[in-house]
Amino acid sequence: MKFGRPFSQPKVTSVIRNDLHIHSAKSLCGLHSLMEIVEIAANKRMRSVNICDHGNAAGKKIDFSVITNKNRCPGKIISSKGTAISVLAGIEANILDIDGNSDFPTERITAFDLVSAGFHSSASALATSQSVEKNMRALKNYLKRYPLDILTHPCITTFPLDNSQLVKLALKYGFALEVNNTNLRLGKTDVERLQDMIQRAQDGGAILCENSDGHTFMEIGENEQIVALLKEMRLNGNDCFINRDDKQLDDFLKRRKKIRSTF
Questions:
Q1: Are 20 and 150 in contact (CB under 8 A)?
Q2: Contact 161, 222 (CB under 8 A)
Q3: Are 145 and 175 in contact (CB under 8 A)?
Q4: Side-chain-side CA neighbours of residue 15 (13 Å)
Q5: pTM above the 0.85 mark?
Q6: Which of 17, 117, 120, 121 is the most exposed place for a label (fewest CB within 10 A)?
């Protein structure tokens, strides 16, 4: 499929090679179609994108059957420049309440390449309470019932979590903890808590990933806030994030897919 002139984008100095958190126009918050995202990723010299649109509790009913069907949406799509971009079929499910209820479509449990979940405004009672203890109970209850490969924006200010317990859960269940560039840009991250989580994950051996949470071409693949944060912490991102290493990421994807096949 050919397009006209590419989007005007900021000069790329550093990008997320494998961005595992991107929203398409299927989400109420996303701006771009799948093919536009492929073009953006190719222009930024990225390798792969994970389309993880919100679960239905976010306010828009989404049918995930097309993007998860590799006969209809292949795992690699060629951009107008001839660049092959790997396209992962994901979801960002919502953790809805203290009982761990979610809008994750259990009938598609083996269809997704990645299952992400996080706390959003749909968890209104938890957002109001601002209770670390209630949020941790909600996450633990979710994990008993649903799969999780990536916990999105765990250090968002509106849903505080206990980092010590969080890292232990990540090690127990094998999911990755996200460092979210767009939330850092928008001031939605508890930076002190994020720094503590990164250090605890590094010390304990929990998996970390850097993602854009991209909704627009200005956000997709971008990681300048993460780079600055790591510089302040005197950490090397290549040693921190699983999605900076293609083989490590591919092994993670295969391992998580296998686990979900027996969930």
A1: yes
A2: no
A3: no
A4: 24
A5: yes
A6: 121
Largest Cα span, the chain: 51
Name residue 54's beta-bridge partners: 92
Contact (CB, 8 A) for 222 and 215: no
Q: How many CB atoms lie within 10 A of CB 61?
A: 9
Stated as kind and residue range, the H or E segment containing 183 is helix 181-185
Domain ranges for the chain: 18-261
Q: Which residue shows structure tokens 């957002």?
A: 127
Digit-coded pLDDT (tens) for 164-177: 999 999 999 999 99
* 174: region left, alpha or beta (phi > 0 left; psi from -120 to 50 alpha): left
Task: Please check whether residue 64 is in contact with residue 91, taking contact to mean a CB–CB distance below 8 angstroms.
Answer: yes
* Cβ atoms of 126 and 135 closer than 8 Å: yes
Here the tokens at position 179 are: 């460092």
* CATH superfamily membership of 18-261: Metal-dependent hydrolases (3.20.20.140)
Query: 184: which 2 tokens?
Result: 């850092």
Could you tell me where the DSSP H helices lie in 25-101?
A: 34-43
Is the distance from CB of 207 to CB of 175 less than 8 angstroms? yes
Q: Which two tokens stand for residue 132?
A: 């670390």
Strands (E), 62-113: 76-78, 84-94
Q: Is the pLDDT of residue 13 over 80?
A: no
**165 class by beta-carbon count within 10 Å (0-12 exposed, 13-18 middle, 19+ buried):** middle
User: How long is the chain?
Assistant: 263
